[in-house]
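Annex B. Sample input.
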Amino acid sequence: MNFRNIGHRTALAAALILALAGGAAAAPAGSWIGAWGFVPTPLPPGIAPVTGQTQPEVAPLAPEVSVKPIAPPVSHPLLIDNPGNLPVEIAPARDPSNVTVRQLVRVAVAGKRLRLRLTNEGGSDVLVLGAVHVGVAGPDGSVVAGTDHVVTFDGRGAVSVPASSPLLSDPVDMKVDALQKLVISLYVPGSLVRGGHSLYQYVAGTPGDQTAQASLPGAAIMRVTSMVSEVQVDPVSAANVVVTLSNAGENSEMAGVVADACRAQGKMLTALVLDADAAPEATLLKTLVPLRPHAAMLVVAQGEDYIDAMLTALRA
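Annex B, continued. Sample output.
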């Protein structure tokens, strides 16, 4: 297959779709969009966060009541991101304090800058952080050399997040790619209070500020309260249409991730499948089936007639 020709066809196809669908507008300064995150739920007024779990009292059964033995539950492996194959503490016996916590996230959108949204909506006390860093995650979960950035808040590295409140960081001049994994490191000089939304995160085994380290010393994975609720990026562009390009037979299962990002930003997702005439039906379906639920416009091109097929679809 002629890859130079594919590149030419890709550029032409993208330009054609953007021109007919309204074009692309230049991104305004500071048009921040969410690239990863969750929605934290503040506690109702007067309700304090739960600091520990207690077992409910159970009334004993009457002597004449017999209970059949219950088979032990089947254990399944945890579906968590653990590229470094670190030990996992499912039920930690300790509340981390004077410790560095590291969160691994995958951003859905490319950008030239980013900023972090800290969350303390579920906390009744001030959340004090001694340092916050962000960098690109390597294959083993460590920070890629040369990508570590200090995150500041009004120009300062340490920050106090008020109770029941969020807080945005200063912009970080750090280029990120779509679907790239980032490592966010946070140093908690005090105790990390349990409560609110929790995630499996890396926790250093050595006390103190380890945010600048490539790998956390003695790290384990624990389910602790998440202190970052959103990663926002300043996008490179603000196109109205996103185009995915696939050759017939290629696996397109990642289309769902792209589609979620498009829906969050109000963009239209279109899909172009090339060289469909050269692929058997079963091979073609491997590409089409994951695309169909997500693409607002799905064009299957037979040979070199993809331009006519796209024009027909756009005018329909």
